[in-house]
Amino acid sequence: MHIYNVTINIDETIHDEWLHWMKEEHIPEMLSTGKFTKALMSKVLVEEEMGGLTYSVQYTTKSKEILQKYYDEDANRLRATSERFAGKFVAFRTELEIVSEH
Fold first, then answer.
1. For residue 15, what are the contacts with CB-CB under 8 A and spacing of at least 6?
2. Are 59 and 39 in contact (CB under 8 A)?
3. Among 50, 51, 43, 36, which residue's Cα sits nearest to residue 19?
4. What residues pair up with 94 in beta bridges, in sequence order?
5. Helix (H) or strand (E) holding 16
6. Which DSSP category does 26 fall into?
7. Which sign, positive or negative, has the C-alpha torsion 25, 28, 31, 33?
8. Which of 29, 55, 68, 81 is deepest in the core (most CB within 10 A)?
9. First-to-last CA distance in the chain?
10. Neighbouring C-beta atoms of residue 87, cutoff 10 Å
11. What does the angle CA 17 – CA 47 – CA 56 come to, to the nearest 5 degrees?
12. What is the pLDDT of residues 23-66, one digit of tens each?
């Protein structure tokens, strides 16, 4: 199992609109690709020096190959949907491999 983690710092002036969009549109669109089995959205509870609010969204997938298919087939299109918030967020992405689960 792999996790595709997206960490986003969002400007407080558009936070509510962005959070609604994430929960009602973007995360469901990510799941509708069929490449992820679940998504977990968490708020980071550490204050950032740059301000804003930070979230981590973890999308679970069954394999590195399926994640690669997401990059090849869906990533550009789905990332482009966030352009309505351009200049108001910073995001970085990491890939995680699940080593054990208890």
1. 52, 53
2. yes
3. 43
4. 5
5. helix 15-21
6. I
7. negative
8. 55
9. 14
10. 8
11. 55
12. 999 999 999 999 999 999 999 998 777 789 999 999 999 999 99
> What Cα–Cα distance (Å) separates residue 41 from each residue in 22, 26, 72?
9, 12, 24
Q: Residue count of the chain, please give it.
A: 102
Q: Which residues pair with 5 in a beta bridge?
A: 58, 94
- pTM for the full predicted model: 0.92
Tracing tokens 């996790």 back to the chain, one arrives at 3
Order the strands of the 38-43 sheet from edge to edge.
38-43, 53-61, 2-10, 89-97
State pLDDT tens for residues 81-97.
Answer: 888 899 999 999 999 99
The phi and psi torsions of 8 (rounded to 5 degrees) equal: -130, 130
The encoded tokens of residue 31 equal 């799941």
Q: Which two tokens stand for residue 84?
A: 């309505």
